[in-house]
Amino acid sequence: MTKTLKGIAASDGIAVAPAYLLVEPDLSFSKTNVGDVEGELARYHEAIKVSTAEVEKIRDSAKTSLGEEEAQVFEAHLMILNDPEFTGAIETEIKEQKINSEAALDETAQKFITIFEGMTDNEYMQQRAADVRDVSKRIMAHLLGKELPNPATIDHEVVVVAHDLTPSDTAQLNKNFVKGFVTDIGGRTAHSAIMARSLELPAVVGTESITADVENGQNIAVDGLNGDVVIEPDADQIATYQQKSEAFLAQKAEWEKLKNEPSVTADNKKFIIAANIGTPNDMQGVNDNGAEAIGLYRTEFLYMDSKNFPTEEEQFEAYKEVIEGMNGKQVIIRTMDIGGDKHLDYWDLPEEMNPFLGVRAIRLSLQNEEIFRTQLRALLRASAYGKLGIMFPMIGTLGELRKAKSILATEKDKLTAAGVKVGSDLQVGMMIEIPAAAVMADQFAKEVDFFSIGTNDLIQYSMAADRGNDNVSYLYQPANPAVLRLIKHTIDAAHENNIWCGMCGEAAGDNIMFPILLSMGLDEYSMSATSILRIRSLMKKLNTEDIKDLANQACFVSETAEDNEKLVNDLMSKLTN
After folding, report:
1. Is 504 a catalytic residue?
2. Which fold has domain 37-144?
3. How many CB atoms lie within 10 A of CB 333?
4. What is the pLDDT of residues 150-163, one digit of tens each?
5. Which residues form the PEP-utilising enzyme C-terminal domain (predicted)?
């Protein structure tokens, strides 16, 4: 039966394909005694055989889509599946205790995990605990007749359905087969939504119940333009979505004509429209959409997509690849923003009551200087290959900024003394995403080369509303006059101190926010690559003289975000008619 759900339009586009549930199955079991030990051993051996074949397939797929290095984790899984000490110990449990395979597997796996985790003087062996967990979960699933979802095994067109998608999940989606995704929770600023825009995948988030309402294989239509999701659409609905998709693609084709055009207003004022990226793999989208710079390279994905801390050399190569790929255009690389909702399996950070207000981003870097210094050395070395800006996230005080700059200067001096070339035009900047930093922007501007406003966090901290919490999502208001005043004050402080100011939050690519930001004189607009040509098209329609009063009205006359949405819509209607 056809059913329509309403969610949040997170990434433009239309997709119609069978649903693929990326949902962990229930792997609970009961310990039982078995009479037919040989039969139980045969059942166990079959689970090992099927698990091995599955991991081999995943490994081969990973080599193609992710590369040899990323596929190494699956080689480790195969070693465990073929390790007689591990598999033999389970067999022994089944024979001697006459218990079911599930119980023998669980008891043996826990012993191995405890042993590996206890090897505190051997980081490599400690990390094998995670491999044992993964392999054991796979064997358990086959013993219980359950299917483990894995994006790497998708080999036909699907729409991925999940409660939520982690950044790592999203980064592994193969665009050749994954045509879109839908989640129960999330908003436009969730990391999965941001990644969807980078991958140009239609996405709807925050449906609340999609995982409960749809079954594997059911046909599903995803409207990333207005947030509708239709389960089992009928023929007429499919035809309507096909027409809507064709119209959207035709609009994109018109925007693509602006790929090599400069970003200028109707009165020929020049600005920069840049792209946000997560990995070097995003560079194709950057170039395909005519980005004039990279305004944000989120380096935490280097850490999140790795099983260990990325080495200086690994980071250097990743940064160098992006810098060289921009052919002299500026690249702003943010130091790692780990913490909050971004975690590393191999970094055992302390639990915090409120991780968004805890040790994250620059705070974590300053408390773990060697990890920070490794990243800074890689960045400094890469700066010799193009125009680089290093940006510190989550700066709240002048003391934090000065300490980060001091560490950077020390590493630069060391490299220079060792004869390592460092870029001569390196810029150092900071994100403005804590309200205290926005208020003190006039002081910070004296100590950096640029600002980049991170609206996603600035809004959640200003409104005291977790951007990932659906219950308070109504408070995520980019156009709220209070937020706009902080943004305007930051831009004005930058210009008064002769530095440039950009924005790398999602608001930079928002149709309502863009005219207001243009009126404020924001210098650089960095966004998901797929938004660039749409915003460039919008910019060409606007004359700065026609919108010169918009900023003051939005900040100091309007009382609500809704007032500002109406203000912009009325103005745009007047200007385009």
Report:
1. yes
2. Enzyme I; Chain A, domain 2 (1.10.274)
3. 24
4. 776 788 999 999 98
5. 252-543
